[in-house]
Design brief:
- The protein has two domains: 189 residues, FAD/NAD(P)-binding domain (3-Layer(bba) Sandwich); 146 residues, D-Amino Acid Oxidase, Chain A, domain 2 (2-Layer Sandwich), CATH 3.30.9.100.
- The chain is globular.
- Helix content is 26%, strand content 33%.
- Helix 1 links the parallel strand 1 and strand 2.
- The chain is of the alpha+beta class.
- The chain starts with 6 loop residues before the first strand and ends with a helix.
- The strands form four sheets. Strands 1, 2, 8, 9, 10, 11, 20 and 21 form an eight-stranded mixed sheet that branches. Strands 5, 6, 13, 14, 15, 16, 17 and 18 form an eight-stranded mixed sheet that branches.
- The chain contains eight helices and 22 strands.
Length: 364
């Protein structure tokens, strides 16, 4: 086994949006990097809305052109039932940039992967970082694929972009804190005969809240958010899930068309969580690995891209001798998290119709 013959300046564990953005920032600074992504190809993920104010960030990362693809739809605002029984609208039309985007998340991640490779990053798909230990050249790294085959590298710096699992940080014994137990149960419907609504739809309910948005190819994505310990097990059954949608006031209207087919209900973790320590002298955590946000914030993919953008520059500065770059990076994360917590409290406090229900009591 040899680590020194395969030396990289930076190894990024995770090829999602935060890992790709970190790589793009590093490449712009002349730093070579390797992305190790555990999945052979991007998995299906629920659609997501990118707000119009995110355009400057996308332009700094030089990826705004990716949204010109027909796989991504324009979004002109949000329609909500929240705090009141009647729907209301928050339009983007008066913003500097008049629309956001409903993105096909899986396709967007594939676009990001190809763009990052074209920009000069090395990409190992299907390999998970299984061991990292201090070595003569910074870190000695072992990457392992699903068949048990291993590759060995050394590097000067590691970026943990492994999502909420934060595998590298937790392997170092760093604690991950969690504010709540929010989970999302999502379905994707392929419909015929309906109008494509260019809005994001959010609707609260006694035990949680709903998100829905259109996707390309006449699809509608819906997600129900509640806490893992109070979720109705029937929501994992297609028929029961459809009945729950029919009991909504606004979301049900999106499916007033012929449903050609649908995916089975699938769950994913959506809780607010964060690492108690997010960097040291030769590693940092980025994206959800550092701080993961409640989807009600609309931080999501934009937070991942933004933290990757700043992480890449912080790593580059550190490798060039800066003593303060990682501290400044962590300050930015803390500032964003403080702003988020204020928004989180405010948004959930607006809904007073079910204040005695467990889900809403926990968020008071």
């Amino acid at each position: 086994m040899s680590f020194n013959t395969n030396h990289k300046q930076v190894i990024i564990a995770g090829g999602g949006p935060s890992g790709a953005a970190t790589a793009l920032s590093l490449i712009s600074r002349g730093i070579n990097c390797l992305i190790a992504e555990a999945e052979p190809c991007p998995k299906f993920k629920a659609g997501e809305t990118i707000p119009p104010l995110s355009l400057p960030l996308l332009q700094r990362l030089k990826i705004s052109h990716l949204l010109n693809d027909k796989a991504h739809l324009h979004c002109y605002g949000n329609k909500l039932i929240w705090g009141d029984s009647e729907p209301y609208e928050k339009s983007f039309l008066l913003n500097t940039h008049s629309h956001g985007w409903h993105i096909d998340r899986t396709y967007f991640e594939q676009q990001l992967k190809l763009h990052t490779i074209d920009a000069g990053a090395e990409w190992l798909a299907g390999y998970r970082l299984t061991q990292c230990k201090p070595g003569n050249n910074g870190w000695d790294i072992t990457l392992t694929n699903t068949e048990g085959q291993q590759q060995y590298f050394s590097c000067d710096f590691i970026a943990d972009a492994s999502g909420r699992a934060s595998r590298i940080a937790r392997s170092m014994g760093i604690q991950r804190n969690k504010l709540d137990n929010l989970t999302g149960i999502t379905m994707c419907f392929h419909i015929s005969g309906g109008n494509n609504p260019f809005y994001t739809f959010i609707e609260s309910s006694p035990h949680g809240w709903w998100y829905a948005a259109p996707l390309s190819d006449s699809r509608i994505i819906t997600t129900y958010f509640t806490d893992t310990d109070i979720v109705d097990p029937g929501m994992m059954q297609t028929g029961h899930h459809l009945e729950a949608i029919k009991n909504t006031k606004m979301i049900k209207g999106l499916l007033d068309a012929t449903i050609i087919n649908n995916t089975a209900p699938a769950t994913y973790t959506a809780s607010t969580s964060w690492l108690s320590r997010r960097h040291d002298k030769s590693w940092l955590a980025v994206g959800d690995a550092a701080i993961a946000y409640d989807p009600i914030s609309s931080y999501g993919i934009i937070s991942a891209l933004e933290s990757g953008y700043y992480a890449g520059h912080a790593i580059a500065d550190t490798l060039k001798g800066s003593k303060d770059a990682l501290i400044a990076y962590d300050w930015l994360l803390n500032k964003a998290f403080a702003t988020y917590k204020e928004m989180y409290i405010h948004q959930y406090s607006l809904e007073k119709r079910w204040i005695e229900e467990e889900f809403w009591k926990r968020r008071r």
